[in-house]
Design goal:
Elements lengths: L1 E6 H11 L6 E6 L5 E3 L5 E2 L7 E4 L1 H4 L4 H9 L6 E4 L7 H9 L2 E3 L5 H16 L2 H10 L14 E5 L3 H12 L3 E5 L11 E3 L4 H4 L5 E4 L13 H5 L6 E4 L8 H10 L4 E4 L12 H4 L3 E3 L8 H20 L15
Parallel strand pairs: 1-2, 1-5, 5-6, 6-7, 8-9, 8-11, 9-10, 11-12, 12-13, 13-14
Antiparallel strand pairs: 2-3, 3-4
Helix pairs in contact: 5-7
């Protein structure tokens, strides 16, 4: 019988969906206080058990007992499958689990919430939300010129699940989306797809530039001084990928020089962002604390991914979003 590790909150939420599995699946839980229990009987366990399967999600990742959760996996001799609620695998803790697990699956349903973040930031920029809020604080009744989503030209660098979710929404509002990815061919929401080497030539024509790709040696610092120099003076720059994609000093200097006009960042090179960082106080930067995906809908969709893959695992079927073990090579 396989033993599945869940955070206690996750089990409480999914318990009705997990009934009837007692004969083939043991479930142990870990709560925020670091206490272990047999999920089905509520019996307290003195020591972490050997686990074979685990679902790592926001309940576990943001818990005070996350270290114990991870160590239980890494110390288990026959750990078999890890379902991550995240899309990326570059986090060192997740990479270590990827090296341990025979099977590692990711989740890409957070793209829906992240796409709404991009839309929110872009609409606020195009309708000059900062300017209107400044006038409201001053008690000034003054009309400001604004722009429309219709006809806006988007360059989405990294046209995977997040990029496609953004592209579908922007296209539905009559924006024009150019997606950037290595694999060419039609893609949902994109008027066209171009290869990464064509980005430099597209930057001068884009009203909105969005990064939504992972951090790799190739993408490290891609948004640098030369990148920003090619952007329009009235363009918006956004990053939903990873903080390491952006040379933050170059971004601040570019904004101060007037090109691009504004930046919205959900990720930064150092997280949490230090209080002394100039990004916090720059008038042309909107910062959110890497929470673009943190919605009830994201949690529910991640749960569905896990439950579907659990059924696949127990039935001996191929798992969805299975990561090649070579991706975790040291």
């Amino acid at each position: 019988m396989k033993t599945l590790l869940l955070h206690a909150r996750t089990f409480a939420r999914l318990e009705p969906r997990l009934k009837g599995r007692e004969a083939v699946l043991a479930i142990v839980t870990l709560d925020d206080a670091g206490r272990w229990h047999n999920a089905y009987t509520s019996q307290a366990l003195k020591t972490p058990p050997e686990v074979h399967l685990a679902y790592g999600n926001v309940d576990a990742f943001y818990s005070p007992s996350v270290r114990d959760f991870m160590l239980a996996i890494l110390k288990s001799e026959a750990f078999d499958w890890f379902q991550s609620a995240a899309a990326g695998i570059e986090n060192p803790a997740l990479a270590s689990i990827g090296q341990k697990a025979r099977l590692y699956t990711t989740n890409h349903t957070q793209a829906e919430a992240m796409a709404e973040w991009a839309l929110w930031q872009a609409l606020d920029f195009l309708r000059d939300g900062p300017g209107h809020r400044a006038l409201q604080r001053q008690g000034k009744w003054m009309r400001l010129k604004a722009r429309e989503m219709q006809g806006s030209r988007w360059l989405v660098i990294g046209y995977g699940s997040i990029g496609e979710a953004v592209g579908r929404r922007v296209s539905a509002l009559s924006g024009v989306v150019t997606g950037v990815r290595r694999r060419q061919g039609p893609a949902p929401g994109a008027a066209r797809i171009i290869p990464p080497e064509a980005v430099a030539g597209e930057l001068p024509g884009a009203d909105v530039v969005l990064l939504s790709l992972p951090h790799t040696p190739e993408s490290e610092g891609m948004a640098d001084e030369g990148f920003f120099a090619k952007m329009r003076s009235d363009a918006l720059f956004m990053n939903l990928g990873r903080g390491a994609l952006v040379d933050e000093a170059a971004l601040v200097a570019a904004l101060d020089a007037g090109r691009p006009a504004y930046a919205a960042l959900d990720v930064t090179r150092i997280e949490p962002l230090p209080e002394e960082s100039p990004l916090w106080r720059h008038p042309l930067i909107a910062i959110t604390p890497h929470d673009s995906s943190d919605t009830p809908g994201t949690i529910a969709r991640a749960d569905e991914t896990f439950l579907s893959n659990l059924e696949n695992y127990l039935a001996g079927r191929t798992l969805t979003h299975l990561v090649d073990r070579a991706a975790f090579a040291a």
